[in-house]
Amino acid sequence: PSSTIAIRYVLFAAIATVANLAAQEAVIRLAPPAALALSIGAGTVVGFVVKYVLDKKWIFFDRFTSHREEARKLSLYGLFSVVTTLVFWGFEVAFWTIWRTDVAKYAGAVLGLAIGYVAKFMLDGAFTFRERNA
């Protein structure tokens, strides 16, 4: 990708990461007994929505073509998000399990998200937001 797109992608990944972690922290403060699972789930949803909107508009410059095509894009984006989210969750849970601290949990989350975002960019560019010929 061009350097401008790469810089923008990193910035948007950071924005989505902050949104993800902020949502996790909000859940931890609101529901401490079930904090880990609920916080990871809430953060994932928030991060997904933020990242999809930013990627669609400002990374891949994707425009609406048809409802069917939009459903295809959203489905692929979601599928690839699930795959890369497993990487993110794996790191976050592993770090928390090993060190059992919030700092470790968030460090694992950031590392897992970074790895996932790189893979996600490659998958979305190749499959989700590419021009399709009829």
List the helices and strands and how they pair.
Layout (H helix, E strand, L loop, with lengths): L2 H28 L4 H25 L7 H33 L2 H27 L6
Could you characterize the architecture of this molecule?
The protein has 134 residues and is mainly α. Helices cover 84% and strands 0% of the residues. The protein has helices spanning 3-30, 35-59, 67-99, 102-128. Helix 1 (3-30) runs antiparallel to helix 2, helix 1 (3-30) packs across helix 4 and helix 2 (35-59) crosses helix 3. The longest helix has 33 residues, at 67-99.
Short description:
This protein is an all-alpha fold and 134 residues long. The chain has helices spanning 3-30, 35-59, 67-99, 102-128.
Rg computed from alpha carbons, rounded to a whole number of angstroms: 16 Å
How would you sum up the global shape?
Answer: elongated
Tally of separate helices: 4
Uncertain runs with pLDDT below 50, 5 residues or more? none
| Helix vs. strand class | mainly alpha
Instruction: State the end-to-end CA separation.
Output: 26 Å
The overall pLDDT average reads 90
Order of helices and strands: HHHH
Quick one: biggest sheet? none
Strand element count? 0
Assign a percent range to the helix content. over 70%
Percent of residues in β-strands: under 5%
